[in-house]
From TrEMBL, chains A, B:
CDD domains: ASKHA_NBD_KDGal-kinase (cd24012). This is 2-keto-3-deoxy-galactonokinase. It holds the Pfam family DGOK. InterPro entries: DGOK (IPR007729), DGOK_C (IPR042257), DGOK_N (IPR042258).
Length: 314, 314
C-alpha cells in the first residue's frame, strides 16, 4: 500500500509492506497549496507514479488533502473515533489504475461547546499508540499544536493551541521581534519564559516583559526568542495539562489501572512529531511537572497502515 | 506654556493658559519616528513656532520624545511617583529662545519583579485624577494598554498588556485574518469573545476557536474581528482586574474609606483615551463585573499643566 500524509505545505509518501513496515519514504514536491485546481491526480502520479507502475494498487491519503481546499472534501468524523471508525469513513476519489481513499479529519467540542477540528493528526495519534486499547495524552507540537485524549484506543477529544503561529506573528510583526536574534532553544532563557508563564498578569502582560527585560539588559537579544517561546509554550502546556488531567482523569494519566490521588500524579505526555519543537515541548512539560516521552517518529505511516488494514478496498 | 504629547507615531501640541486651560490645540506632522537625526529643534519650531513668536517661553514635552530614539533620553523615574517627583525630574534640552523640558517616563516592577515602563501615559494619569490625593485604577487602552494603580495621588505601579499589537499581528499575519471582514465593534460577537475568555483552555486555545466557529458557520466573517477583540481584551481585563484589585485592595477600589468585603466590590476603572477602543474596553470591563467611567479627554494637557506649575523653570 502507498500512504501519503499530505498537508498544507508539505507531503510525505510511504511505501508500506503488508505488515505495515516502511519499505520506502520520500518528500513530495509540496503541500496542497502548490497543487493547481484539478491537479491532484497528476500531483499524486508525480509523487508515487513509479511505485504504482511497480504494482501498488492501493493509496491512502490523510491531511489537508481531504479538506475543501484539497482534492475532495472528506467530511469531519465526530469524536470519539478510533481505527474502525476512521477506516469506515474513508472517502474514495477517482483515479485511474488504483484505489485511492481519503481519511476524514476529526471534529470534537471542547468542554464549553466550541468546535475543534484536525486533519492528519488523527493518523499520527492512532499510529502512536502502544496498545490498541490504550489510554493516553498525546501532544503534537506545531503551528496549531494539538493535545489529544485517547481512551480505550479511541480519540475521545482534543484541543488546539495556536502557539506556533502566534509565536511567528509576534516575532515577525510586533515590536518584540526588533530585539531578537537567533532561534528558540530549550536553554535557561526558555526555562525563564516557562517559569514566567506561571505568574500572575496573563499572557498579554507577560509578552511585554520580553521587551522590558531586554530594555533593562536582563534578556540578551540572542535569548529573546527562547524566552518568548517559553512564555507561549508554557501557557499552552499549563492549560493543556490542567484540561487534560481534568478531562481524562488522574488515574488514567498515571498510565495504569491503579487508583492514584490526582494531586500525586505526574502527567505522562506522549510527544509526536519531529524537529526543534520536540525539545522545547519536552522541556516545558517537565518544568510544568509532567513527563514527556517521545512517540514513534513514523507514527503517520503506522497509523495509515493500521487504517488501511481495516478498509474494505474492493 | 506650551505642552506637547509627542509619541512614536503622532504629536499633539497644546497652548495653555496660566490656569491650565487649553487655549489652542493642534496635531503635529508626525511622531518621533518621522524626525531625522538632530531634527527635533526644527520639528518643534515647525509645530509651535507661531506660539513661540507670540511670546511663549516655556515648553514641556512628554512621551517617546524623551526616549533613546527621541530628542534626548530622560531616564525613567521609579514608582511610586506623583506630580512633584515628575516635576523634579524633568530634563532640560537646549533650544534657542525658550526653556524646553522633557518629562521622564516611569518604571516599576510587577509583583514578580519583571520591569515595566511607560512614557507619556504618566501625564495622562496625573491629569485624569479628580483629586490630588486620589486612589484610583486607571486603564489606558492602546497597542500597549496600561493599567495604573494610583494611591494617594501618586502612581504606585502599573502593568502593560500588548493586547492591541497582538490583535493586529494575529489579524493581519495569521490564518485568523483570512476569514475576517470589517473592524471590531462592541456588539454581541465582542461579548461572546469576552465570555469565552472566562472559560478553560487558555488564550492560545481560545484563538483557534475564532477559526473553528467560522468553519462551522457559527461566526460570520463580519463578526470575527469583534470576537477576536473580545477574546483578547477579555483576557486582559480579567487579569488586570484580578491583579489591580489584589494589589490596590478592595476597599480602595470601592472609592471610599468604608471597609468593604472585597468580594462585594465592583471595581471602578477610569478609562483614559479616545477612539473606538474606549467602547470596547468599557463593554469588557462591565461584562467582567467592573464599572468603567470615562476620564478627561484632555488628560494629557491637564497633566502637563499640573507638572508645569511645579517646575523650577528659572
Amino acid at each position: 500500500m502507498i500512504a501519503v500524509d499530505w498537508g498544507t505545505s508539505s507531503a510525505r509518501a510511504y511505501r508500506l509492506a503488508p505488515d505495515g513496515a516502511v519499505l520506502a519514504r520520500r518528500e513530495g514536491a509540496g503541500g496542497i497549496l502548490r497543487v493547481p485546481e484539478g491537479g491532484f491526480p497528476a500531483a499524486l502520479t508525480e509523487m508515487v507514479g513509479d511505485w504504482l507502475a511497480d504494482g501498488e494498487t492501493r493509496v491512502l491519503l490523510a491531511g489537508m488533502v481531504g479538506s475543501r481546499q484539497g482534492w475532495q472534501e472528506a467530511p469531519y468524523l465526530a469524536c470519539p473515533a478510533g481505527l474502525d471508525a476512521l477506516a469506515g469513513a474513508v472517502v474514495p476519489v477517482p483515479f485511474p489504475g488504483a484505489a485511492v481513499r481519503l481519511v476524514p479529519g476529526l471534529s470534537a467540542e471542547d468542554a464549553a461547546g466550541t468546535p475543534e477540528v484536525m486533519r492528519g493528526e488523527e493518523v499520527q495519534v492512532v499510529g502512536a499508540l502502544a496498545r490498541p486499547d490504550e489510554d493516553a495524552l498525546i501532544c503534537l507540537p506545531g503551528s496549531h499544536a494539538k493535545w489529544v485524549r485517547v481512551a480505550g484506543g479511541r480519540i475521545a477529544g482534543f484541543t488546539t493551541h495556536m502557539t506556533g503561529e502566534a509565536f511567528a506573528a509576534l516575532k515577525d510583526h510586533t515590536i518584540l521581534g526588533r530585539m531578537m536574534t537567533g532561534t528558540a532553544e530549550a536553554g535557561p532563557a526558555f526555562a525563564a519564559g516557562v517559569a514566567r508563564s506561571a505568574e500572575g498578569g496573563g499572557l498579554l502582560h507577560h509578552l511585554f516583559g520580553t521587551r522590558t527585560l531586554g530594555l533593562f539588559g536582563r534578556l540578551a537579544p540572542e535569548d529573546a526568542a527562547s524566552y518568548l517561546s517559553g512564555l507561549l509554550i508554557g501557557h499552552e502546556v499549563a492549560a493543556a495539562l490542567t484540561g487534560g488531567a481534568a478531562l481524562a482523569g488522574g488515574a488514567v494519566l498515571a498510565g495504569g489501572g491503579a487508583r492514584v490521588e490526582p494531586a500525586l500524579v505526574r502527567p505522562l505526555v506522549r510527544l509526536v512529531g519531529s524537529g526543534p519543537l520536540m525539545a522545547l515541548y519536552g522541556r516545558a512539560i517537565a518544568l510544568k511537572g509532567g513527563e514527556a516521552v517521545p512517540g514513534d517518529p513514523d507514527a503517520a505511516a503506522r497509523g495509515l497502515a493500521l487504517i488501511g488494514e481495516r478498509i474494505q478496498w474492493a
